[in-house]
Write a structure and sequence with these properties.
The complex is a heterodimer of chains A (about 300) and B (about 350). With about 300 residues, chain A is an alpha+beta fold. Chain A is built from three helices and 19 strands. The longest helix of chain A has 27 residues. Classes of the chains: A alpha+beta (about 300), B mainly beta (about 350). Chains A and B meet through α1, β4, β7, β10 and β14 of A and α1, β1, β10, β11 and α2 of B.
Chain lengths: ~300, ~350
Amino acid sequence: MKKILFLLTITLLFFPLLSQAAILYLEPAEGQYYQGDTFLVEVRIEVEEECINAAAVSLTFPNDILEAIDFSKSNSILLIWLKEPEIFQEQGIISFSGGMPGGFCGILPGDLGKTNLFGRIIFRVKEVPKEQFFAELKFSDNSQIFLNDGFGTAAELKTEKAVLDILSGIPENGRKEWEEELKKDRISPEPFEFEIIRDPLIFDNKYFIVFQAQDKQSGIDYYEVKEGKRDWQRGESPHLLEDQELSGIIMVKAVDKAGNERIVEYLPEKKPLSRLIIGILIIIAMGIGYLFYKKSKWKLKK
Amino acid sequence: MKKWLILFFSIIVVSGSILLILSLKATPASAGVNLSAHISSICGNGLVEPGEQCDGVNLNGKTCIDLGLGYIGGTLSCYAVGWPDECLFNTSECTSPSPTPPPGGGGAPLPDTGTRVILQGLAYPSAKITVLVDAKVYAYITADSSANFKATISDISAGTYNFGLWAEDKYGRKSITFSFTITVIKGMTITVSGIFLPPTIELNKVNLDKGEDLTILGQTAPKSQLSVHVESPQEIIRETTAEETGDWQLLFNTAILDEGAHTVRAKAESQEELLSSFSRVLLFYVGRYGVDELCPRADFNKDGRTNLVDFSIMLYWWGKANACIDQNKDGIVNLPDFSILMYWWTG
């Protein structure tokens, strides 16, 4: 009886504090994997009392057992990526940061999906040194979530780790979750546009382009930019243009993780003739006119 | 001894309960999560939901005769996704006793079998609404004179989408972006209803002497109840009602405020009991603290919008000092500034 009363008291006293937090968690939080398996771990957020709009996340994993081979941004609620997901295999760290314009207030009642996804990490099990190993994936203390309050207030953040049971032995039909997902993806990234901008606040008022594409299946992998006859080169937004005259066609290519592409292009407007050329043409025209005038005068005299 | 122990624990339990109730009450309604927006129906999922008469083969147990429209038999069916009357009864195969052909069906145009999302709710009378899909402008629509709006997003692929809406009232005041994320399913029409865009808000002045009246005004749906929150060290809440035109106004005397910076924001509850999220947060100063904002609303290039271009400018200055980009004035462009940019996003 006393124990129950004590537990009830503790629960009642601490429940209000818990309800204020945003919770970063991983899915699955547990599972069994074998050597050579490729599997996905989803990074998700739960908000309870507040709307959030920005996140900086860092998590650690045992790099001797697991190899983080990729990160998929598909169907992420983070639409604007401040720092693209980066994998530091040697340190066993994965980090990313991004934002949700207008904020995220939790899953909408009636939604059939779980729309609280930040991203998916693709792991491969390396060699397992002993029969069984517990791989702990946990968020770093420097992970941050910000409230959608217009003041950049950091939210109270709670994190939940995942503990994966890694077993030795290579099963006949090992998991190949990521490879299967890539095989299914035959759809190009969503249509997108890019803008050509110049502003004194950035790149010394030189022309640059901004772009962003979405891919709902495997996620955007990278972008390439092509200016005129120059070769394609990897690029990210904002991208400073080499051709500041904007004389050639500018193309931006978005490529998803499965290799599907979407290319958008900008055709330069036909520029009016420069003042110098117009001036030269006027002088030539006047010269020809003068010659004709002279010739006609000479004929009349004759 | 036993009695004392029970008394002791009872006191703790009671005080714990009181603390719980108080803390729940003190939980700011600011949460923004107590909104009325919800997915009201999904045409194509086989379930008959509000606004639907049927869904696929699910006719809600009805036959032609049950409809009470004078049919004597025949086959009742359901219009599928893409038809103009999707998830409504198709009575074209119902048998009528008279030679008059039954309503509906027949020569309806072929549907586009695309996936669709319908967003509907309230804004302000004749408000101009910008619809964002994945943070990019998708369409501009106008609310009717009763503040109702409806937007249809069609031919999108399946996946997770972020939808955002913001409105401009007849005085040119803009609302904050109201956004939410939903899963779009191939071949289905998802209707999100109960959206109530946050009210617009404006102050007659931002620098006031202590004791001076501050006029807080804006627009919302006609006859809505406004709850105006002034954030001082303690939150002060005042209420008012919008007129038939949607205009609302509140006179607030600053005598009860300390000298310094304060903020104000408002949210509304419509006559239909729809709840909006909070409006923009506006800053005002009481006493001698007044300062001008250098680059308000994270609109760094001052084009009237907060979008990818402003984000690019922020990236350029990341980790550096720039009085314009540094929105929270902590001396460096960093994560809190990015959060503020996300807050003001217009697409």
